[in-house]
Design goal:
disordered N terminus, two-stranded antiparallel ribbon, 3% strand, 811 residues, 30 helices, single chain, 57% helix, mainly alpha
Length: 811
Amino acid sequence: MGKKAQTSTKKTHKLSHTKKKTITLNKDVKRGKALMPGAKWERPTSRAYKKKMQIMERNKDRLQETEKEKQSRLDEDADEAYDELVENMDQEDLQYIRQMAGKSNKRSYDDEGSDLEEGALKRIHAQIEEEKNGQENVQFMLPIKTKAGWKDRSVKVEGKPAEESEPEEDEYEEGEENGGGSDQEKEEEIRDQVTEDISAGDKISVVELYAKRKEMLREMKIKIGSLAATFLEEPHTKISHLEKLVKLVDMPQADSIQISVQRLAAASVCECLKDVTPQYRIFHQTAEKRQKKETIALQDYENGLLKHYKAYLLKLEKYVNYLKLGKRKMPKDELVLKQAEYFLTYMCELLVAHPTFNYSFNILHAITPVLDSSIPNARLIVKNAIEQIFKGDMRGQISKEATRLINHLVKSRKHEVNVEAIDVLRALRIKDVNLDMEKEREIENKKMENRKRALIQRATLSRKEKKHKKKLADLDKELLEAKGEESKQQKEMYFTDATKIVFTIFFRVLKSFPRSSLMGAVLEGLAKFAHLINIEFFGDLVNVFNHLLEADFLTNRDGFLLVNTVFQILTGQGEILNIDPSSFYTHMYKTLFSIDYIRSYNDLPIALNTISDMVIKRKSRVSKGRVLAIAKRLCTMSLQMLHNGSASALALVREISNNHASVQQLLDSEHEVGSGVFDPYVDNPEHCSASNTTAWELSLLHDHYHQPTKRLADHIASMCPVTGVAALPLDLKKPHQEILENFSMDNMAFNPPILPPSAIKTKKRHFTPTSLQLNIDSIDCDTSIDFYSHMDKTGIVELLEDDKDPITETL
């Protein structure tokens, strides 16, 4: 069947007569041909209409006049304010404002504002000229605070004020007409500022150049100080001032002040950031809900702070990278290297002040390679900074990151790095760690898996049981957070990971690079962290140390450190092990004579501490022969060291004598045990026959120039009495470590001061004069005198007959 064409008819709405009349009335009202019902009709040609229009025009004129009067009053008030500003401002500030106004090209003013500012500047210039032409110079002093407020002070100084170079008004007018310039033009203007008053061919003295440089530097100091002060007053609203300070860090300046200005700007930004930066990491999550205005303003401020913080670090890193280069690639300009050291100091200060802020890991990545720099001062700066971080780290996260970076540095350089890279690891706060944490985690995971299997075998839980279990898990988590158990576990995990990295570095050096220069630092680190080593590895470590001693390529200092590490292990957990340390006793006894006050005096503290661990801490396991040999050697060593070393060695002998009564055998000259003669050249302390000798060195030390050393020697020679004349005062009854430090010569002074020898009083003796005062020719005497005839000849004849010695006879 075919479809019939269906015709669609549009529905039309008919308007009522009243609505049509209303529409036409509205159109007539709009055209002015009619009025709304109830309104009074006024034709444009009527008198009432004209009178109404005149009144409106008069009111309009009055409003314009009142607005002009208000504007004129505002202008007068502004002029008065500028006049007061000119009167109260210092001449230096006026000069600075004038120069800055001539260089400001970024600001745009209205016609009225520019005229007002131009008039004020003209008055400022007139005031400067009046002060120049005057006979007296007014020097403004610092203001004082009174009850009424701050009060300015000024002092009149006689003489003409010093002439200062001022930019001409033409330059300012040109700058105003141009309306602004590019940053490149401003940089060129700053570079040419030193020679702006100097034309080609002019002769200028060094004093004038220095004065010009000092003036420019003072202006920049004022600018940097004002920007920093205003930013610190309201950091949330004056974040743009921080941006300007950051730009000054690497902005090109005049060659004579560029380094100084950049250094001052970098120091100012560093201090500002240390005061403003929060002690937490900033995280901005995308908020779906609407936020308060205060929250939005705070987020904008934090975003700006992060932005400028990052820009500042990037500018500093450009110079710090010079310190990472080798000696060949490093720039030869010393000023650049000094600038790099200063910038490195600022980065380290920021890291130490805020180790938990956003860019702390970035700073660590930047400064850690400097530990292998060829500049000692740069290495020391980074070492001190990382040590402070290690000592103050309570969470362990940044310590773990720092150790990871040091491990990467040492491994990438194939262990050919400076000692500071390993020495810094000794400052780690790894006291309470759990190196068996992984094993415990595996055991717990296995238990959890067994529980899951048991639950799966049971019937499936209902919805209510699942909800109840989830609530219990959330509650347990909240309880852990409230107790702080979760943070403790996380802290322990961080420090445990850091400890594993440290021991990885130490054992890698011991195993693969025993001849490396890092050996001493590794041994010191092992001695400090020996209590953290698992007891299962003690035997292997001692065997490795034995092989190192037999190889005989270690220095004396490394040998002392190795023996110290061994006895640190054996005096702790290693006491339960049956290990014979006789080879270490022999090595220590043999190398003690290598210490003197010239070549290896810094090794003395390590040697004395090692002997204390060998003889005192292990007193129940040391033989009598070893104790006597070591005590005798310490007495001999005290003869070849400075007074503080001698006193420290004698203090250790006193400690050994208090713990081993057999040492007093060295003070008895008639006591003999066994046969043989003491031989100091025998390396083994058991076979040197130390029981057959005495401590004769104490008699020599009785006449020592240092009074405490003499007192200690007399005390030991008297068998260490507690009371009596030979008893020690309290300041000498201290451990040998403190005595070594107290009597040190680091300050180039004796403690106590040594008195000069007293003058010897001699009796007056009368001697015969060596020269005669009278003339020989004036003496009257007989020239024919026979001396032989007057001699007594009888005594001589008797002596000859008896054949005796005349000398013995007379006696």
